[in-house]
Amino acid sequence: MSPQTAKKKSAKKKTVTKKTTKRRVSVSTNNVKPKLYASLVVQLLSLLKGEHDFVANAANMSALLFNSLPNVNWAGFYFLKGDELVLGPFQGNPACVRIPMGKGVCGVAAQQLETIIVPNVHEFPGHIACDVASNSEIVVPMFDGERLLGVLDLDSPTIGRFDDQDAEGLNELVTVFVAHEEGLGL
Ligand code: SME
Predict the structure, then answer these.
(1) Which ligand 1 atom sits nearest the alpha carbon of residue 103?
(2) How many angstroms separate the CA atoms of 94 and 91, rounded?
(3) Which of 29, 67, 150, 176 could form a disulfide with 79 if both were Cys (CB 3.0 to 4.6 A apart)?
(4) Which percentage of the chain shows pLDDT scores above 70?
(5) Is residue 56 predicted with pLDDT exceeding 80?
(6) Each residue of 11-22: pLDDT tens digit?
C-alpha cells in the first residue's frame, strides 16, 4: 500500500467514526427515555392481561419499574387510607409504613395532587429518609377519576435522576394501571 493510499484510508475511517458518535449522542438526548417508557407500557399491559387482583398487579408493576429503570433503588406504592398514605407493594429496602398527608415528598404530592420531581432530596424540607442511598425522588399521584388512590414513588441514588420525560412516562404507566383496575370499587 502506498503512503498516499494509507493516508486516504485513515481519513475515511476517521469521518465514519465521527458520524456514528454524533448520531449516538443525539439519540440518547432525545429518544432513549420515551422509547423505554413506551416499551414499559407494552410490558405492563402484558403483565396486567387477564389479572385483576389489585395488590398482585401493583406488586408486578413495582418489580417491572425497579428492574427496568436504570439508577433506581426504590420503586413502589403508597395507598391513601383515611387521611394518611400507607405502604403498598414495592421493591427496595424496607420503608416507612405510614406517611401523613402533607408530610415528606409523598405526602406533599398527595396533598397537592401533582407529580413532584425532587432533584436533591436533602434540599427538600421534610423529606422522609427511608433509604440513606436515596438522593433524588419522583412521586406521581394516582387517581380514579377525581379521587386520589395514592402515589407511585421512585428513589434514585443519583442526584437529578428524574426529569419531565420520567414524569410523563410514569404518569402514562399509572394511567394504564388504574384504567385496568376500573370498576373494581377501589
Ligand atoms: N422519601 C419519601 C418516603 C418514602 S421512601 O422514599 C420509600 C418521602 O419523603 O415521602
Answers:
(1) 10
(2) 9
(3) 150
(4) 82
(5) yes
(6) 444 433 344 444
Partner residues linked to 26 by β-bridges: none
Ligand 1, pocket-test mutation among 101, 108, 153, most atoms within 8 A of CB = 153
Q: Edge-to-edge, what's the strand order for the sheet holding 116-118?
A: 98-100, 84-92, 74-81, 147-156, 136-144, 116-118
Distances in whole angstroms, Cα of residue 146 to Cα of each of 10, 79, 93, 113, 150: 63, 15, 31, 10, 12
Q: Counting every residue, how long is the chain?
A: 186
Task: Calculate the alpha carbon distances from 84 to 103, 139, 163 in Å.
Answer: 10, 15, 27
Nearest ligand 1 atom to alpha carbon 96: 4
How many angstroms is it from 106 CA to the middle of ligand 1? 6
Q: Please write down the long-range contacts of 142-145, taking CB distance under 8 Å and 24 or more positions apart.
A: 142/77, 142/174, 142/177, 142/178, 143/113, 143/178, 144/178, 144/181, 144/182, 144/186
Give residue 52 CA to ligand 1 midpoint distance, Å: 27
What is the C-alpha separation between 27 and 125, in angstroms, rounded? 36
* CB 10 within 8 Å of CB 3: no
